[in-house]
Fold this protein.
Amino acid sequence: MEPVILPVLQTLVFPGFLFLIAVSFLYEWLDRKIYAWMQLRAGPALAGPVGIMQPIADFVKLMGKEDITPAYADRRIFGAVPVLMVALILTFWAVVPVTGAAGLVSFRGDVVFAVVAMTFFCMLIFLGGFSSSDRFSLLGAERAVLQLLGFEIPLMLSITGVCIHTGGLSVSEIVSWQAENGWSILGPQAMGFFIFLVAAQAELERIPFDIPEAEQEIVAGWLTEYSGRKLALIRLAKDMELVFISGLAVALFLGGPIGPSHAGLEWLLYPAYFLLKLALVVAVLALVRGLFARVRIDQMVSFGMRYLVPLSLAQVAATILWRLI
Amino acid sequence: MGIIDWAFRKSPWILHFNTGSCNGCDIEIFAILTPKYDVERLGVMLKGSPRHADVLVVSGPVTRQASGRILRIYEQMPDPKKVVAVGTCCISGGVFSNGGKGACYNVYPGLDSIVPVDAYVPGCPPKPEAILEGISKVAKKAGVD
């Protein structure tokens, strides 16, 4: 009986679904607080102590609201997209290590598996915008795919750099290599970390790359027609994607959850290290969000293709040279 | 129903609609988003799409041209929804009400002749504090539905 119950608990509670949902609400709050601090504001303050319950209030409120499906929308796809988004990130979260070197699931090549999650997410965004049958949604969906074209290659290449650097194709290999030889950000991968963060900001559709949901131009982009329960699930999925990508950055560049620890205390200290490093990455992403204004579409694509791709290629070349020496 | 009431009180998302205002009320509405008043403390966010919004904040005299659009935007919002009329023009027609003898030929005598209104914020323009008060009162009411 015991060998069945433990994996089920791990999947459902910690470090699986419930943990991910709680952490994604927490880090949405942190993100909004830092963003407000950058603008000399207080940010959410009245829902719970220092506003920490604000994302939960938003979620519950949206769950309680009327759920409108536009008459011309493709009902099945329109309704399926939010659920699929949540399911996608919940599934792929299993490869992110939280309690030790390996995640819930670990196999050779799971780094590639993790990157595919972001591509799938973008495909779902396109489907959601396309099935809304709304001009703004369609424009937002097109822009999301354009953004994918611009930033998927640098993201892949920056992760390739890590794989070459550490000589492992699975997250657990990469994390345990870093536990022995120091964090991979300390080598030639500092550039890779920078590229990963920029590309992650674009994948997450946050300022300065919030082109698919540009409020001032196309209402709310691909989200325009979503309301009520569906919007709540999409917002949850986006928060979880933020945590997922930040968790991936922690695992690949910042040594994962491994840190100095007493024997027997790893179960407590490793998740704490993980959450601290995660907070660091989320803080950096929030600072970037507060510092920049939105770029134009052509600037975004040319920045991705003209600067980020050569930069990431150079970084991969430097990593290969570093390995040979 | 406790937690749902609480959530509705803590997270009113607003949508701003200008029916032909002189911009006096609009800059006061945007003042509540700025660091000095920072309405995100109350959980308020300014949304672009009517599908995401809970509170419709209307400024300006309701002209005949805008009346159809405001009705359409009101109907696009998901229930439960609230409306706040900001400024004297929006409440009664203001200077366009022809000295209290009824509105001009192209202006309705107030927003409540088009859509049900939950809070009136008088003033020309009203202070940001007053608009904040109106939105927070509407948010408190939202939970009682």
User: Anything to note?
Assistant: Chain B is about 35% helix and 15% strand. The longest strand of chain B covers residues 13-18. The interface with chain A takes residues 3-4, 6-8, 10-11, 35, 38, 40-43, 47-49, 51-52, 54, 76, 78-80 of chain B (CB under 8 Å).
